[in-house]
Amino acid sequence: MAEKVKLLSVKEPLLLPVDDSQHQTAMNSTGGKHCPEERQHMEFSVTTMKRKSNYMSCHGLNQLVGQRTRTCRRLPSKIILQNISAIFNVGVNAVMGPSGCGKTSLINILSGRKTKGVSGHVVFSGEVIPDNFRYIVGYVPQDDNISGVLTVRENIMFSAQLRLPRTFSYYDKTQKVKDVISELGLEHCSDSRVGTALKRGISGGERKRTSIAMELIVSPGIIFLDEPTSGLDAATAISVVQYLYNLSRDDRIVIMSIHQPRYAIIKLLDSVTLLSRGELVYNGSARAVIPYFTNVLGLECSKHNNPADFFLDKINEQEKEYDEEKGEVKKSVPTKSSMFAAKFRNSDEYAQLQNKLDPIIQTALRHPVAKTPSYANNYFWQVYYLAVRANKVLTRDPSPYFQVFSTIVLAIFTGVIFFQLDTDIQGQRDRAGAIYLTIVNIAVSGVSGLDIFARQRASLVHESTSGFYSIGAHLTTVISLDLIPLRILPALVYSPIVYFLSDFRAGAGRFFFFVLTLTLLSYASIAAIFMISCFIKAFNVANAISILMVLASTCFGGFLVTLESLEDWIAWLQYFSFVRYSFVAFMWNEFEDTVFCNRLPQNTANNTDICLSEGVLTCCDIIPQNCNLSRTICGDELLDQLGVDQFNMWWNIVLLTVLGSMFMVLSFVALSIATRKK
C-alpha cells in the first residue's frame, strides 16, 4: 500500500514510510504503542510512493572553483565536476575513481554541504533537497572527529542528546543509543574510551563504527561516508563495509566514496559510480560494470584480477595522456579519458539512466522546498550538553594538569633568577626585566593550546554543520569551561610564586592588580591563538603564525625598543599588542611613586623628611635607607624613559580586555564562515 512519503523536520530524526504489514509488525513489537520516532516526524514531501522507491539522484551537476596565481592574478576556473547525472538506490552505492577525480566533492554536494560554485539539482525521493538536508542525513567524514576521552556510549549519547528533540525522554534516548550500539556490534566496547594520543583505546574499525553510530541516532534514510576504509587494514575495512551493507538492507541508502577496494568489498556493492577528472565514466549496477568495460569500451578484465584494480588502472592509464606541466591536452584529438565519458554518454546504459532521471527532475521541480536550517534543541540546552561533555573531558584529560605543573616549574625558575630584588638602581633594571620575562612566559604559553584548539575546530565544523549545535553555544562553552579554567588557571598559579619570590612592590592592592593583569594577559593571548586556529585549518601554518604573532606583540611591548622611536608606518601595530598593554600596566603598578638609588656605606636615618620637606625628590613617598641622594632615579622617570606614560594602569586593563574580546568576536566570524555551506 502506497502512502505519503514523510521526512522529519530539521528537529526530528529522518524517517521513511512503511507499508501496513511493516507498520503492524512495529506496533506489535512495541505493545501497540507508537515508537518515539513515529511520534516525531513531520511532512517533508507530498510525493506518494512506497518505501522501496526511495532514491537519490543528481541532474547535470557542475562545480567550478576559482583560481589565482601567487600574485593574486585571476585564472580560469578549475572544473571539479562536469555534467554529472546519476541515481543512487537503496543499498550500498560506491563512488570511485583516481585521486582528484571529484569523489569527495560529489559526496559533499549530494549531502547538501557544498553549494558554492555548484549548478544542477539534487533530488531525494522526488523532491529537491532543502537547505536543512545536511541536518537530517548521516554524514561520516574521512577523519573521525569524536572525543577520545569519552567512551563509545558517551559519544553516541552526546549525539542523541543534541540531535533528538526535547520531546524524546531520557529513557527514549538511552534506548535509542542501546539499539544503535547493538546494530553496529559495539556492545563489547561500549563502555571503553575511544582513545587519545596519550592513551590507547578502541581499534580503528570500532572507532569508525562509532562515528557511523553517532549519525544513525537520527534514523537517517540516507547516510554518506567519505572514504570509510581509509587508514584501516584489509580485514577491518571489510568489517566496516559489511556493517554498512547490513544497514542498507534495512531500506537505507548508503553512498560512500572509496579509492581502490579489494574484491571482497566489491562483492558487497550494489551500485558503482566511476569518475575521471570530474566526468562521469559509469553509473549503474556493480555487477554490470565489468561487462560494460568489456562490451562498450573493449577492455577485458583478466580472470584473477581485482575488478576495482582493473577499471581504475585503465582510467589512470588514459589520464597520463595529459600534459601535467601545462595542464593542457598533448593532442588535438580527445583524450582517452574524455572518450570514456563520451562513450558512456552514447551508450545504452546512459540512455536507460536518462529515461529514469528525466521524469524525476520534472516532477521535483514542480514542488520546490526551501526550509530554514534550525536545531533540535535551543541555545540553552545546547550549552548544557556541551558543558556536560566539556566537564567530562576536563576531569579525564591529563594535559591541563601537565600545563599547570609546567607553569609552577617555570614560575619557580623565574622567581629564583630574580630572587628578592633590591631597591637600588640595578634592582630597578632587574625588576623591569622580571616583569617582561613574566609577560613573555604567559604569552608564549598560550601557543600550547593551539593543538587542542585545532582538534576542536575539526570536530566543531563537522558537528555544527550536521546540526548538533550553533557556533554561539560552542563559543560560550569554550569561554566558560576551557579558556577561563584551563588557560587562565596557569596565570593564577604563576602570579603569587613570582610576585613574592621576586619581592615585587608590597601591598595587597598592588598584588591583586598584578594577578588581574596577568590573568587578562593570558585571556588575550589565548583568545588570539584561538582566533588563529579558527581562521587557519592547517596546524603547521597556524602554529607558525601564532608564534609570529606572539613575537610581534613582544617586539611592540615597549621594553626591547622605545615605542616613540618607531616610524609612523609601523608604530600603529603597537595598539594590537597585548604585551604592550600588560607591560605598561605592570610598570605603573611597580614603579609609580617610587625611588631607586645607590646605597651609602654607613647606616643613616630614614630620609623621608628630607625628601618631602625640602623637595629633593618629590616623586616618592619614602626614600630607602642608606640612599645616596646625589645618585637617585625615580620610578616615574623610568616610566617616562620607556614611554609608558600614555595611559594609566586602569586604562591598560580596559584596553587589554577589549583586545581579547575583539579576538573572540573575530573567532566567531571565522567559525561562522567555516561551518556555513560552501
Q: How would you describe the overall organization of this protein?
A:
With 678 residues, the chain is an alpha/beta fold. It folds into three domains: 3-51, no CATH class; 54-137 and 220-364, 3-Layer(aba) Sandwich (Rossmann fold), CATH 3.40.50; 399-592 and 651-675. The chain is 50% helix and 14% strand. A six-stranded mixed β-sheet has the order 8-9-10-5-11-12, with helices on both faces. Strands 4-3-6-7 form a four-stranded antiparallel β-sheet, with helices on both faces. Strands 1-2 form a two-stranded antiparallel sheet. Strand 3 (55-68) and strand 4 form a beta hairpin. Helix 15 runs parallel beside helix 19 (508-535) and helix 15 (425-445) runs antiparallel to helix 22 (578-591). It starts with a strand and ends with a helix. Mean pLDDT is 79; it is low at 1-52, 322-326, 328-336 and 600-622.
Average residue pLDDT: 79
CATH class of the largest domain: Alpha Beta
Q: Beta-strand percentage?
A: 5-15%
Structural class: alpha/beta
Main beta-sheet strand count, sense and barrel state: 6 strands, mixed
Count of structural domains: 3
Write the layout of secondary structure elements.
Elements: E1 3-4, H1 20-29, H2 36-40, E2 48-49, E3 55-68, E4 74-89, E5 91-96, H3 103-110, E6 118-124, E7 127-128, E8 138-140, H4 152-163, H5 170-183, H6 204-216, E9 222-226, H7 234-248, E10 253-257, H8 263-266, E11 271-276, E12 279-285, H9 289-295, H10 307-319, E13 322-323, E14 328-329, H11 336-345, H12 348-364, H13 379-396, H14 399-417, H15 425-445, H16 450-465, H17 471-487, H18 489-501, H19 508-535, H20 539-555, H21 568-571, H22 578-591, E15 595-599, H23 608-613, E16 627-634, H24 635-642, H25 649-675
Parallel strand pairs: 5-10, 5-11, 8-9, 9-10
Antiparallel strand pairs: 1-2, 3-4, 3-6, 6-7, 11-12, 13-14, 15-16
Helix pairs in contact: 4-5, 4-6, 6-7, 13-17, 14-18, 15-19, 15-22, 16-19, 18-19, 19-20, 19-22, 19-25, 22-24, 22-25
